[in-house]
TrEMBL record:
It comes from the Bacteria. This is Phosphatidylglycerol--prolipoprotein diacylglyceryl transferase. The lineage of its organism: Bacteria, Pseudomonadati, Bacteroidota, Cytophagia, Cytophagales. It is found in: Cell membrane. Keywords: Cell membrane, Lipoprotein, Membrane, Transferase, Transmembrane, Transmembrane helix. It comes from Dyadobacter psychrophilus. A 1,2-diacyl-sn-glycero-3-phospho-(1'-sn-glycerol) binds at residue 148. GO terms for cellular component: plasma membrane. PANTHER family: PHOSPHATIDYLGLYCEROL--PROLIPOPROTEIN DIACYLGLYCERYL TRANSFERASE, PROLIPOPROTEIN DIACYLGLYCERYL TRANSFERASE. The chain crosses the membrane at residues 29-49, 61-82, 94-117, 184-202, 214-233, 245-265. Catalyzes the transfer of the diacylglyceryl group from phosphatidylglycerol to the sulfhydryl group of the N-terminal cysteine of a prolipoprotein, the first step in the formation of mature lipoproteins.
Length: 276
């Protein structure tokens, strides 16, 4: 007898009732988890800054850079990679609600841009791009775990049909609720949690002596190699992807993995130079 998991969780936690002309406002698991990524991440960065003797006054600025660059990058990335016709016809869709489309590859590009801007004026304090990025990927891995779990709570980004005993029937998803499917969101969430602990262990071991670019390289290789493989288990996000041998997520993951290899190479090169 084949068993499977009936997933019939409402994406809404509760609804704030209407107040005058405003509302009602549904509070959703995805939004709560998305925000938790920033809030918990900020506390982790405070801990790291304290341990490495960096100014805590920079934390608020770093958090603001990350919030803006993540959201803008994810929104622009979604339209650029998946709905380019909307981006060019009506660019205001990027900033107007509802914010239904967020692309993780776009978020990464936005975060890199934000870190470059943040670190530009802080090199004298030792906060170079790679110093900040190596520590920020710890937070990003945890946030990624939260966000992918949020996708599970939304019953979105579902996997392909499966007969494995841990297959999920997504009752709330009216398009794909008929048969058990891979819980690809959960796979990615668990992978990001594992990566978070790996990166935290690396930082705890080396702290200020962490080879520049090492953790960034590990992050890119881990996340986007697994993303490439998990895409084989997912339903395509957009209809046009059916015409490709690889979907958009896989195409975008290839250069990201290569970038990770480059960062690992550079970290080994820099560590060898310091050892001389």
């Amino acid at each position: 007898m084949i068993s499977y998991i009936i997933w019939n969780v409402s994406p809404e936690i509760f609804t704030i009732p209407q107040i005058g002309d405003f509302g009602p406002f549904p509070v959703r698991w995805y939004g709560l988890l998305f925000a938790a990524g920033f809030l918990v991440g900020q506390q982790i960065m405070i801990h790291i800054f304290k341990k490495e003797g960096k100014s805590l006054e920079d934390i608020d600025s770093l958090t603001l850079y990350m919030v803006l660059s993540t959201v803008i990058g994810a929104r622009v990335g979604h339209f650029l990679f998946y709905e380019p016709e909307v981006l060019f016809k009506n660019p205001l869709e990027v900033i107007l609600p509802p914010y239904a489309g967020l692309a993780s590859h776009g978020a990464i590009i936005g975060i890199i841009t934000g870190l470059l801007l943040y670190s530009r004026s802080r090199r004298s304090s030792g906060q170079t791009f790679l110093w900040v990025a190596d520590r920020m990927v710890i937070v990003i891995a945890l946030a990624g775990a939260f966000i992918r779990f949020g996708n599970l709570m939304n019953s979105e980004i579902v996997g392909k049909p499966t007969d494995v005993p841990w297959g999920f029937v997504f009752v709330q998803n009216t398009e794909f609720r008929q048969i058990p499917r891979h819980a690809a969101q959960l796979y990615e969430s668990i992978s990001c949690f594992i990566l978070f602990f790996i990166l935290l262990w690396i930082w705890n071991k080396y702290k200020a002596a962490t080879p520049r670019g090492l953790m960034v390289g590990v992050f890119f290789i881990w996340v986007f190699t697994l993303r490439f493989m998990y895409e084989f288990l997912k339903e395509n996000q957009e209809a046009f992807e059916a015409n490709y041998a690889l979907n958009m997520g896989q195409i975008l993951s290839i250069p990201a993995v290569l970038l990770g290899v480059y960062f690992i190479y550079q970290s080994r090169k820099s560590s060898h130079q310091l050892a001389r």
